[in-house]
Automatic annotation (TrEMBL):
This protein's GO CC annotations: cytosol
Catalytic site positions: E108 (proton donor)
Enzyme Commission number(s): 3.5.4.5
Amino-acid positions noted as binding Zn(2+) in the UniProt annotation, renumbered to this chain: H106, C133, C136
Entry protein name: cytidine deaminase
Keywords: Hydrolase, Metal-binding, Zinc
Molecular function GO terms recorded: cytidine deaminase activity; zinc ion binding
Amino acid sequence: MSAEADQTSSVGEIVTRGSLTVDLSRDSGSDKHTFCIEADEVQRLLSSSGQSEDELLCGLIQQASSLARPPISSFLVGAVALGVSGRIFFGVNLEFARLPLYNSVHAEQFLVVNALHHGERELRKLAVSEAPCGHCRQFYSELSCADSIRISFGKGQKLSSYTLAELLPQRFGPGDLLDISNTPLLLQPQQNSLQLTEEAHDRVEARAGDATFQEAFRQAAAQARASYAPYSQCPAGLAVITAKQDVYAGPYIESAAFNPSLSPLQAAIIVGVIDSMPCYTHVNEVVLVELEGGAVQHELTARVVLAQIAPEATLTVLPALSPKKKPPHHEMP
Ligand SMILES: [Zn+2]
């Protein structure tokens, strides 16, 4: 079946692309934007415009795209999703100059971190400015709502709506590697049990008087506990501290296909963009909580990325132990 035939066959409703503009400035006159529209505001927009949910999402795509940061391609991608809570979330693509392309964040991935950041447990509908790439179709296979979410995109004024099974049939997913009847999937609460090593504990204690560091440690540890790492069992969380002492933190998120995974540094940067971090070079320090001796570790990659995007930043690594895994240094030779 051709792509054109797809547009008019069994793929569901066709939605007309609108051009709604909503004032998303947090403060009038500022250049700060919010990437989440609260449920009551969504209801107000629906009633005042007379639009359907799909029309509202499609109408917001262009506004989302305008927030993208792609210095390599200059190709702006926007994603807009409606969550089960009634809130709308934005996602945009991020690229990092002077780094390999695989460090880029796709708009659909950004959106999932945004939903996690706001505690959303399920996405009902997603509208994207471009056809989702294979990488993102794979990444969305991790969602607990992968079988129910509808995804809209298309050229011109008409968008078509699809299920993920239509976009990525016979896909490799969590069920191929995990007992999914017993594993919380992406967007469902994760409860990784972690304890700091004594070395890490001493490092935190040594900075007891540094309130910003303590907050960054608390957030990085919380993100490590919430990390989605069912394949490696190596949860991790990372917090960045800016020159203004603001803290932004994100979790490590895995994919069954491994490569679409998001590093905790990427997730923390996404949260920084959502919460108006002015520029990556404003990052002063980065705090990483990850498993000591784990099969997956982020320290070295984080150092390479930081050397380009925030060369002045220092990296503090706080190794942790998981009761699920016997750490290598406890093993007999
Ligand atoms: Zn993509």
